[in-house]
What does this fold into?
Amino acid sequence: MELERTLDSAAAPARTNYRWKVATLIFLVSFVAYMDRVNLSVATPVIMQEFGFTKIDMGFIQTCFFAGYALMQVPGGILADRFGLRKTGTFAILWWSLFTALTAFAQGKFSFAAIRMAFGLGEGPVFPSLGAACYKWFHHDEKGKASSAILGGTFFGPVVGPVVTVALMAWLGWQGVFIVFGLIGAVVAWSWHKYTRDNPQDCPYVSAEEAEYINEARDANAQKAVAPWKKLLRNHRFWAIGLQFLVVDYIMYVFLAWLPMFLTEAYGLNLKSMGFWTSVPWIALTFMVFFAGWFSDRLAMGKNSERQYTMRTATAIAGISVTSIGLYAASQMASVEAAIFWMTVALGSLGFCMSATWSSVMSLGGRFSGSVSGWINLWGNIGGVLAPIVTAFLVEAYGWNDMFAITALFGTLVVVCWLVVKPGKQLLPEEVSANK
It folds into this structure.
C-alpha cells in the first residue's frame, strides 16, 4: 500500500508556478516603458542645446506625451476588458516602441511634441493590461506582490535608464538612444504575446492545479464585458482613488521630468555625475514598493486579513506625509549630497502610496480591474500632463527650491482622499459586477 501511494504521488502532476514568470514579464514591460520615458529627461540638456529649446519648450514636449497617455487611459482600460490583456498589451507595446524610435528623427519643437504625443497614446493601454493581468493571473492573497511587479519595473526603469542613456549617448549620440530602445520594445512585445494568455487555464505552461489555485473563490470563466461606467462615476470613492493618484503621480513626474535638469543647473553636475545621482532616489522607490507589496500580502495571510485594507490607508497617508517633509527639506539643502538624501526619502516614501493604490485596484474593481486601472492612470497622468509644464513655470518664476517647497504642499489632498477610499470594499456590488 505504501508503494502504491508513492507511485500515485509520483504520477500526479506537480502544481506549476508559471504565474511568477508572468510576474517577471509584467515587471519587464513596465521596466522598459519607464526606461523609454526617462531617456528624454536625461537627454534634455543636450537636446535643449542642439535645438535652442527653453525649459518651457521642454515642459511642453513632455506634457504632450502625458496628454496622449492620459487620453488613452479609460479607452485603454475598456480595450483591456473587451479584447483581453494579451492582444491589447502586444499592440500597445509595439505602438509605443515605434514612436520611441521615431523620436530620433524629430527636427523641431512641434515634431518632438507630435511624436511624443503619439508615443503616449500607444503606451496608454499598457498599464490597464498589466492591471488586468494581475487580477487574472494571481490568487487573491498575492495581490500585493503582483502589483509590486508593475511598480517595481516602473521604478527600476529610472534607476537603470539614466546610466544606460548616458552610455548610449556617448556611443551613438542622443538619436541612437531612441532607436535602441525602440528595438528593445519590439522584442518585449513579442515576448508578451508568446508567453501570456487572457486566462491562466488557457496557457499551455500552466497546470490545472495552478489554474485552480489562481481562480480560487472567483469565476475564472466570467465573460469579457465593459464596466458599467455610469454606476462607477456616481461613486465618490471612485473619484477619491483617482484624485489622490493625480497628486501622487504629479510628484513622481516632477522627479522623472526635471530631476536631471535640477541637478545640472542647481549643483553644476556634469552628465556622468548627473546620471548617477538621478538614479539614487529611484533605487529607494523600487525597494519600497516591493517591501510594501510583501508586507501587504503578509497581512492578507494573517488571521484577520481585513486589516490589510486598513493598513493600505494608513501606509498611504504616512507615505505621502513623509514625502512632503522630504521635498521641503530637500529644498533647503546647500549640498548635492544632502539634497539627494532628502529626495531619496521623499521618493522612496511615495512608494507606499503607489503600492496601496495598485494593491487596491483588484479589491475595488473586481472583474473590471482593467477599467479601474485605466481610471486611476487617467488621473495619475493628468498629474503627468501638469507636472512638466507647471514645474517649468514655477522654476522660471520662483526658482528650483521654492518649486519643491510648493510641491510639498500638494500632499494634503492625498491624505483627505485616502480617508474616503475604503480599499477593502468593492466599488460595485457583486450582483452588479456579475450581471452588469
